[in-house]
Amino acid sequence: MPERFARGTREKVRRAAELAEAENASMVEVEHLLTALVDPITDSLGQRLETAGLSAPAIRAARDREFHSALALVGVDTERPSPSAAPRQRRGRTTSFGPSAKLALERTLSIAAESGQRRITTTTTHLATAIVRADVGIMPRLLDELGTNGNDLEQLLLGSQ
Protein backbone atom coordinates (compact mmCIF):
# COMPACT_ATOMS: atom_id res chain seq x y z
CA MET A 1 0.00 0.00 0.00
CA PRO A 2 1.34 3.47 -0.79
CA GLU A 3 2.61 5.28 2.25
CA ARG A 4 1.77 8.84 1.31
CA PHE A 5 0.60 11.27 -1.29
CA ALA A 6 3.21 13.12 -3.30
CA ARG A 7 3.38 16.89 -3.14
CA GLY A 8 1.32 17.53 -6.29
CA THR A 9 -1.54 15.39 -5.02
CA ARG A 10 -1.41 16.98 -1.55
CA GLU A 11 -1.59 20.42 -3.17
CA LYS A 12 -4.73 19.43 -5.08
CA VAL A 13 -6.34 18.05 -1.91
CA ARG A 14 -5.53 21.32 -0.10
CA ARG A 15 -6.95 23.26 -3.05
CA ALA A 16 -10.17 21.22 -2.82
CA ALA A 17 -10.48 22.22 0.85
CA GLU A 18 -9.96 25.88 -0.10
CA LEU A 19 -12.67 25.64 -2.75
CA ALA A 20 -15.10 24.04 -0.30
CA GLU A 21 -14.40 26.71 2.30
CA ALA A 22 -14.85 29.49 -0.27
CA GLU A 23 -18.31 28.08 -1.02
CA ASN A 24 -19.13 27.76 2.69
CA ALA A 25 -19.56 24.03 2.16
CA SER A 26 -19.69 22.03 5.35
CA MET A 27 -17.48 19.32 3.87
CA VAL A 28 -15.01 18.74 1.08
CA GLU A 29 -16.71 16.39 -1.37
CA VAL A 30 -15.60 14.64 -4.53
CA GLU A 31 -16.78 17.50 -6.74
CA HIS A 32 -14.35 19.82 -4.94
CA LEU A 33 -11.53 17.35 -5.64
CA LEU A 34 -12.48 17.26 -9.32
CA THR A 35 -12.67 21.05 -9.50
CA ALA A 36 -9.26 21.33 -7.81
CA LEU A 37 -7.71 19.34 -10.67
CA VAL A 38 -8.60 22.14 -13.10
CA ASP A 39 -8.63 25.24 -10.86
CA PRO A 40 -6.01 26.38 -11.57
CA ILE A 41 -4.65 24.24 -14.37
CA THR A 42 -1.09 23.42 -13.43
CA ASP A 43 -0.31 20.32 -15.49
CA SER A 44 -1.11 18.44 -18.69
CA LEU A 45 -3.77 16.41 -16.86
CA GLY A 46 -5.70 19.57 -16.03
CA GLN A 47 -5.37 20.72 -19.63
CA ARG A 48 -6.73 17.40 -20.90
CA LEU A 49 -9.66 17.52 -18.49
CA GLU A 50 -10.48 21.08 -19.53
CA THR A 51 -10.30 20.09 -23.20
CA ALA A 52 -12.83 17.35 -22.40
CA GLY A 53 -15.21 20.03 -21.04
CA LEU A 54 -14.30 19.81 -17.37
CA SER A 55 -13.43 23.41 -16.58
CA ALA A 56 -14.03 24.76 -13.09
CA PRO A 57 -17.06 26.87 -14.17
CA ALA A 58 -18.53 23.93 -16.11
CA ILE A 59 -18.13 21.60 -13.11
CA ARG A 60 -19.79 24.12 -10.78
CA ALA A 61 -22.67 24.72 -13.21
CA ALA A 62 -23.20 20.98 -13.72
CA ARG A 63 -23.14 20.42 -9.96
CA ASP A 64 -25.75 23.13 -9.45
CA ARG A 65 -27.98 21.69 -12.23
CA GLU A 66 -27.68 18.20 -10.76
CA PHE A 67 -28.51 19.52 -7.29
CA HIS A 68 -31.61 21.36 -8.51
CA SER A 69 -32.71 18.31 -10.51
CA ALA A 70 -32.39 16.10 -7.43
CA LEU A 71 -34.41 18.56 -5.34
CA ALA A 72 -37.09 18.87 -8.01
CA LEU A 73 -37.30 15.08 -8.22
CA VAL A 74 -38.44 14.94 -4.59
CA GLY A 75 -40.78 17.91 -4.97
CA VAL A 76 -38.67 20.75 -3.60
CA ASP A 77 -39.33 24.06 -5.36
CA THR A 78 -35.97 25.39 -6.50
CA GLU A 79 -37.38 28.47 -8.23
CA ARG A 80 -37.90 30.38 -4.99
CA PRO A 81 -34.89 32.29 -3.79
CA SER A 82 -33.41 30.68 -0.74
CA PRO A 83 -32.34 32.72 2.26
CA SER A 84 -28.70 33.64 2.02
CA ALA A 85 -26.48 31.72 4.34
CA ALA A 86 -24.63 33.73 6.93
CA PRO A 87 -20.88 33.43 6.59
CA ARG A 88 -19.54 30.82 8.95
CA GLN A 89 -17.11 31.88 11.61
CA ARG A 90 -13.89 29.93 11.28
CA ARG A 91 -10.85 29.35 13.39
CA GLY A 92 -8.36 27.84 11.04
CA ARG A 93 -9.38 25.09 8.65
CA THR A 94 -12.57 23.52 9.90
CA THR A 95 -13.87 21.95 6.70
CA SER A 96 -13.81 18.18 7.04
CA PHE A 97 -13.77 15.60 4.30
CA GLY A 98 -17.11 14.09 3.38
CA PRO A 99 -17.75 10.47 2.48
CA SER A 100 -17.36 10.94 -1.27
CA ALA A 101 -13.99 12.69 -0.90
CA LYS A 102 -12.74 10.12 1.60
CA LEU A 103 -13.72 7.31 -0.74
CA ALA A 104 -11.93 9.00 -3.66
CA LEU A 105 -8.77 9.41 -1.58
CA GLU A 106 -8.92 5.77 -0.46
CA ARG A 107 -9.36 4.69 -4.08
CA THR A 108 -6.38 6.84 -5.04
CA LEU A 109 -4.19 4.81 -2.70
CA SER A 110 -5.63 1.54 -4.02
CA ILE A 111 -5.00 2.54 -7.63
CA ALA A 112 -1.40 3.36 -6.82
CA ALA A 113 -1.03 0.04 -4.99
CA GLU A 114 -2.44 -1.83 -8.01
CA SER A 115 0.36 -0.35 -10.09
CA GLY A 116 2.93 -1.43 -7.50
CA GLN A 117 3.82 2.06 -6.30
CA ARG A 118 4.58 2.82 -2.67
CA ARG A 119 3.96 6.51 -3.15
CA ILE A 120 1.37 8.42 -5.11
CA THR A 121 3.15 9.88 -8.11
CA THR A 122 3.86 13.55 -8.50
CA THR A 123 1.13 13.70 -11.13
CA THR A 124 -2.48 13.70 -10.08
CA THR A 125 -3.53 10.92 -12.46
CA HIS A 126 -4.23 8.45 -9.63
CA LEU A 127 -6.53 10.96 -7.93
CA ALA A 128 -8.32 11.82 -11.16
CA THR A 129 -8.77 8.13 -12.01
CA ALA A 130 -10.20 7.44 -8.55
CA ILE A 131 -12.68 10.30 -8.97
CA VAL A 132 -13.98 9.27 -12.40
CA ARG A 133 -14.24 5.57 -11.45
CA ALA A 134 -17.02 6.33 -8.98
CA ASP A 135 -20.09 4.37 -10.04
CA VAL A 136 -22.53 5.68 -7.41
CA GLY A 137 -23.19 9.02 -5.81
CA ILE A 138 -22.96 12.42 -7.41
CA MET A 139 -19.99 11.79 -9.69
CA PRO A 140 -21.69 9.68 -12.39
CA ARG A 141 -24.59 12.15 -12.50
CA LEU A 142 -22.21 15.11 -12.55
CA LEU A 143 -20.21 13.62 -15.42
CA ASP A 144 -23.48 12.98 -17.27
CA GLU A 145 -24.39 16.66 -16.80
CA LEU A 146 -20.98 17.50 -18.27
CA GLY A 147 -21.70 15.32 -21.31
CA THR A 148 -19.17 12.61 -20.56
CA ASN A 149 -18.75 9.49 -18.44
CA GLY A 150 -16.18 7.80 -16.25
CA ASN A 151 -15.07 5.29 -18.87
CA ASP A 152 -14.32 7.98 -21.47
CA LEU A 153 -12.45 10.09 -18.95
CA GLU A 154 -10.47 7.12 -17.65
CA GLN A 155 -9.29 6.44 -21.22
CA LEU A 156 -8.30 10.12 -21.50
CA LEU A 157 -6.40 9.84 -18.20
CA LEU A 158 -4.56 6.72 -19.29
CA GLY A 159 -3.28 8.73 -22.23
CA SER A 160 -1.87 11.39 -19.90
CA GLN A 161 0.43 9.07 -17.96
Task: Briefly summarize what is shown.
The chain is 57% helix and 2% strand. The protein has helices at residues 7-22, 30-38, 44-51, 56-73, 99-114, 125-132, 138-145, 150-158, and strands spanning 27-28, 96-97. The model has no long low-confidence stretch (mean pLDDT 86).
Describe this structure in words.
This protein has 161 residues and is mainly alpha-helical. The chain has one domain (7-73, 97-158): Orthogonal Bundle (Double Clp-N motif). 57% of the residues lie in helices and 2% in strands. The protein is built from eight helices and two strands. The protein has helices at 7-22, 30-38, 44-51, 56-73, 99-114, 125-132, 138-145, 150-158, and strands spanning 27-28, 96-97. A two-stranded parallel ribbon has the order 1-2. Helix 5 (99-114) crosses helix 6. The radius of gyration is 16 Å and the shape is globular. The mean pLDDT is 86.
Key attributes of the depicted protein:
single chain, 161 residues, mainly alpha, Double Clp-N motif, two-stranded parallel ribbon, 2 strands, 57% helix
* Rg for CA atoms: 16 Å
The neighbouring-strand order within the major sheet is 1-2
Task: Label the structural class.
Answer: mainly alpha
CATH architecture: Orthogonal Bundle
Compute the average pLDDT.
86
Return the CATH topology: Double Clp-N motif
Q: What is the N-to-C order of secondary-structure elements (H for helix, E for strand)? A: HEHHHEHHHH
Q: Main β-sheet, in a few words?
A: 2 strands, parallel
Write down the CATH class. Mainly Alpha
Rough shape?
Answer: globular
